[in-house]
Design brief:
The chain is 29% helix and 17% strand. The chain is an alpha/beta fold and 299 residues long. The strands form five sheets. The protein has a three-stranded parallel beta sheet, with helices on one face. Strands 4-5-8 form a three-stranded antiparallel beta sheet. Strands 6-7 form a two-stranded antiparallel sheet. Helix 2 (62-72) links the parallel strand 2 and strand 3 (82-83). Helix 1 packs across helix 8. The radius of gyration is 20 Å and the shape is elongated. The structure holds glutamic acid and zinc ion. Zinc ion binds at residues 107-109, 124-125.
Amino acid sequence: MTNSSSYISSSYIGRFAPSPSGPLHFGSLVAALASYLDARANNGKWLVRMEDIDPPREQAGASDLILKALEVYGLHWDEDVLYQSNRSEAYDQAIEKLQKKDLVYCCTCTRKELRGTNGVYPGNCRGQHQTEKAHSLRVHCPGSAISFNDLIQGTTSSSLNDLGDFIIKRKDGLYAYQLAVCVDDAFQGITHVIRGSDLLFATPWQLSLQTMMEVRSPVYGHFPVITLDDGGKLSKQNHAPAISLDNPVPALIQALNALGQKPEKQLAEGSINDVIEWGVKNWRLNAIASRMEVPLTSL
Ligand code: GLU
Ligand code: ZN
């Protein structure tokens, strides 16, 4: 697929967009399953996009392990997998377009200089269009409140003043997640994003970037992430174990429970396809708790 081609628009296109920083773990299985079931229950397409734009955080072979796990779990995707590592040209084009609109500036602040700003960029470098110094690229975010209706969490609002200008290209030359995710959601014609609540904070940034890029915004639904006893998120960072490829049914059932779907008891005796089919047929988005977290021990 070339960068200039675009997906045909369809009434529902969903996606699962893992970062290959490790094999699929239970938290990411829930993300894959939620996006898959919501897409299939709406007769939609379900795409897989490998967000492999951060090599320092990636693990060799993880992309293939994730895809293999999805197949074993009966989560079959449409179209070819899109690898973000092949999309530099599209990201550069998007940056150029934003630069032409005078929305981008060079940020030369060091980490030390930004200490104490609580992650909200104070705008020091606004207006700096050129520099010889090492710099990241930031977008100038209009300081207005953004409110959106999350399919799971309900009305969510935040002020962009609280978020600050954000990075679209890092000092080390890598493209930022916010940029890549917006460019590719638009490119793939994604209409629905069902993902974990750990990304709820990023949504106002993405909505504002989509407006700046003049692309259509998908609708969003953020399900509660699975947490460990200590309240930590189940993630690759805290070494969540890879899910077993030998015995998918119990993990699928547990994932359905995490999504509030109350799977029938006899599914435990069924095949992977039985569980997936039940999940599609009985899918209720509004059965998902409108909470930010679900403890693993409650499942
Ligand atoms: N690649 C991101 C992650 O694994 C998810 C991106 C998204 O769903 O928007 O955390
Ligand atoms: Zn700066």
